[in-house]
Design goal:
Strand content: 25-35%
Largest sheet: 6 strands, antiparallel
Bound molecules: zinc ion
Shape: globular
Number of helices: 4
Distance between the termini: 58 Å
Structural class: alpha+beta
CATH architecture: Beta Complex
Helix content: 10-25%
Radius of gyration: 16 Å
Order of helices and strands: HHHEEEEEEEEEH
Number of domains: 1
Number of strands: 9
């Protein structure tokens, strides 16, 4: 048992375990106080994006959403994921094999998992795992409550 715990700890403290997850500096960061976020977001959105919560699987907004469009950060509007990179992982959460732009998200080590956040406003989005489909082999497991879906038709009008 001790050996297992030690091995886990060693694996967790090893940042080179995730060399493919590179963070980029963001120049237009959005910083707001907890009070400001609370006013802007629903209690569920706040609990997930600002307090690293997780919504229930299957019973969420975008798990089964197959419409074409862009998933933006619910906090700051940063474009995060596209429907073209969405797939049904069977986990009950909206899953993507790649973000729209690698500079729009950032990675944090979270125990033996890798947490994914919005690189502009630091919103917690979900986690990324290495059991996704080709071509990346990655599975970005996201919370619907962290995302704001904008349909393609609507986007074209803007
Ligand atoms: Zn954001």
């Amino acid at each position: 048992m001790v050996t297992i715990v030690l091995r886990l700890f060693t694996a967790c403290s090893h940042t080179s375990q995730f060399p493919k997850f590179q963070n980029f500096n963001q120049t237009d960061t959005v910083i707001k106080s907890d009070e400001e976020w609370k006013r802007q977001l629903t209690p569920e959105q706040y609990a997930i994006t600002r307090e690293q919560g997780t919504e229930p699987p299957f019973n969420n907004k975008y798990d089964k959403n197959n419409e074409k469009g862009v998933y933006k950060c619910v906090c700051c509007g940063n474009s995060l994921f596209s429907s073209y990179q969405k797939f049904d992982s069977g986990t009950g959460w909206p899953s993507f094999w790649q973000p729209i732009d690698k500079t729009h998200i950032k990675y944090l080590e979270d125990g033996d998992r890798v947490e994914v956040r919005c690189n502009r406003c630091d919103a917690h989005l979900g986690h990324v795992f290495d059991d996704g489909p080709k071509p990346t082999g990655l599975r970005y497991c996201m919370n619907s409550a962290s995302l704001d879906f904008v349909k393609r038709k609507k986007m074209a009008k803007k």
